[in-house]
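Predict structure. Chain length: 125.
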Amino acid sequence: MSEEPVAPSAGLTAERASSLLVFVTRSLVRDGKDQVTVRHNPPADSSFQLTVTVPPGELGKVIGRGGRTANSIRTLIGAMAARSGMTAQIEFTDGRRPARSPRPGNSGPRRGGGRRDDRGGRRPS
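Prediction complete.
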């Protein structure tokens, strides 16, 4: 079986990243899909910044629990940008203030305490 060569893409541009972000965020938002907008700054050096604005009350759906959805979107666009030798920064907002997802690995205190072996005291025989 022979595979056909895939034509190389023209590289990631801010316009292509914007259109992908509009598609992804509109699929996550229930109300006001036509109010989703993405603004991008012209690329400076090899990076660009994208600002995603969603209707009020829909920001939580785009960010996700603990910022997981927002981080996944950032990873997707970041991977596309890296293939083109660029970097991308994405900010999510509902028009009132920018939303910041928590840093990875900083999801709050652990529940349930330590393992039984870690509590000290007598060890089972």
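Summary: The longest strand covers residues 47-53.
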